[in-house]
Design goal:
Elements lengths: L9 E4 L2 E4 L2 E4 L1 H8 L7 H12 L8 H10 L10 H14 L14 E7 L3 E8 L2 E9 L2 H4 L3 H15 L1 H4 L3 E6 L15 H8 L5 E6 L6 H5 L23 H7 L1 H12 L7 E4 L2 E4 L2 E2 L8 H9 L9 H9 L4
């Protein structure tokens, strides 16, 4: 009888407080986490990580914040350093501001906002703009080397698998700031890695909607760290009408034959490969001999601020590093 209650506005259940407002963490458990002393051994660290990990769905960017601590859980890796102490304090601070998550309503479509950074992926499960759960996960060194397109695809697949029990059998919307993913299921050519990830989405009913990065704040916040700014920059060549190059490939007799061989999987000349609709030669984009875009490429690598009006040799090396 001590576990039976009636006519209550709030209910305690398995470390959560459930009310008409939603689901929130039990304040007594939060107090325990905040008062937890710095771990002196592996057993104490496992206890802290187990308690905080139970509420990771409430924590924005949990995976990235806790990474220095999870590294210490490896065999013979427990050495408490300043980085681990900072992560320990940051994680305890995050536990004091846990949000109230909405209760899922299976009569309303779910929304998944996913995003990826250089070292991790993050996603938010929502309904009517209110978060139901957060998800974040660090990427392996191999995954960090993948293209942005592939990392964004990983974020979507990992999030859908995480919330399979909510999404399976229901139509839902996936929002991403990677425009090309909007046409994921319409692609005619995929490499083996992409096929592996896409196959994990079979059986789900969904549509992918492009959402510019400045509007994709919820998932993007999973990959940011408050009061810790890091300036990074990179340059990427993108010619106008890049997706129309396939037409020029078909008009070039030699490249058209190679393209057909790559699509059908028959034997092709050594060094050629197909990636996202482009014919590559030793990792460089193959440009048709009579392409009308040759002048535009040279101008991009010479006349623009990116090119800096470099000399002939330097401009040639820049172009040759990406194009064949």
């Amino acid at each position: 009888m001590k576990k039976c209650v009636f006519a209550k506005s709030k209910l305690e259940y398995l470390g959560h407080i459930i009310s008409c407002e939603g689901v929130q963490a039990d304040p007594t458990k939060i107090t325990s986490m905040v008062n937890w002393p710095p771990p002196r051994n592996l057993r104490e660290l496992r206890g802290f990580m187990g308690l905080t990990g139970y509420y990771r769905r409430f924590v924005v960017n949990y995976g990235k914040t806790a990474k220095p601590l999870t590294e210490l859980l490896k065999k013979e890796a427990f050495h408490w350093r300043a980085e681990a102490d900072e992560a320990f304090i940051t994680l305890k601070r995050a536990m004091t501001i846990l949000p109230v998550l909405a209760m899922p309503d299976f009569n309303i479509p779910f929304e998944v906002e996913a995003d990826a950074s250089g070292k991790g992926v993050g996603a938010v499960l929502m309904q009517k703009g209110r978060p139901i759960a957060y998800f974040s996960q660090g990427l392996s060194k191999k995954a960090q080397q993948c293209f942005v397109y592939e990392r964004e695809l990983m974020a979507i697949v990992l999030a859908v698998k995480k919330w399979r029990h909510y999404l399976l059998g229901n139509h839902f919307v996936i929002r991403t700031d990677q425009r090309a993913l909007k046409f994921l299921l319409e692609q005619r050519v995929m490499d083996n890695e992409q096929q592996k990830w896409v196959s994990k989405l079979l059986g789900f009913k969904f549509e992918i909607v492009y959402k510019p990065g400045k509007e994709n704040k919820a998932a993007d916040a999973l990959l940011q760290k408050v009061n810790n700014f890091e300036l990074q920059g990179y340059s990427l060549y993108q010619a106008e009408g890049f997706l129309e190059w396939e037409e020029e490939l078909k008009q070039d007799g030699k490249l058209a034959e190679i393209l057909q061989q790559l699509i059908t999987g028959t034997q092709v000349q050594e060094g050629f490969s197909l990636r996202k609709g482009c014919v590559l030669y030793k990792g460089r984009i193959a440009v048709p001999k009579h392409s009308s875009r040759k002048v535009a490429i040279i101008r991009e690598f010479h006349d623009t601020p990116l090119g800096g009006h470099s000399g002939v040799l330097r401009t040639y090396k820049r172009v040759a590093s990406l194009f064949h």
